[in-house]
Amino acid sequence: MARNELRPIIKLRSTEGTGTTYVTRKSRRNDPDRMVLRKYDRALGRHVDFREER
């Protein structure tokens, strides 16, 4: 299996609608569903949920 197939690059977008994004990799085996992480949104100045977009 190639590296990009096992751990693809994904974009996390803020659920608050500010347009802030993070770019990361995820494991398809451990997290087959869409990933949701709580990260810092610089536009709001606080932590919010970031959801994987496809």
CATH homology superfamily? Ribosomal protein L33
Give a count of the beta strands, DSSP E runs of length 2 or more: 4
Low-confidence stretches: none
* Sheet with the most strands: spatial strand order: 2-1-4-3
Percentage of residues in helical conformation: under 10%
Number of domains: 1
End-to-end Cα distance, whole Å, is 21 Å
Task: Please name the defining characteristics of this protein.
Ribosomal_bL33_CS; 4-stranded antiparallel beta sheet; Ribosomal_bL33_sf; Ribosomal_zn-bd; mainly beta; structural constituent of ribosome; 4 strands; Rubrerythrin, domain 2; 54 residues; ribonucleoprotein
Walkthrough of the structure:
This is Large ribosomal subunit protein bL33. Belongs to the bacterial ribosomal protein bL33 family. Keywords: Ribonucleoprotein, Ribosomal protein. It comes from Streptomyces tsukubensis. By secondary structure, the protein is mostly beta strands. The longest helix has 4 residues, at 3-6. The protein has a 4-stranded antiparallel β-sheet, with no helix packed on it. The protein has one helix at residues 3-6; strands at 9-14, 21-25, 36-41, 46-53. It has one domain (3-53): Rubrerythrin, domain 2, CATH 2.20.28.120. The two termini are 21 Å apart.
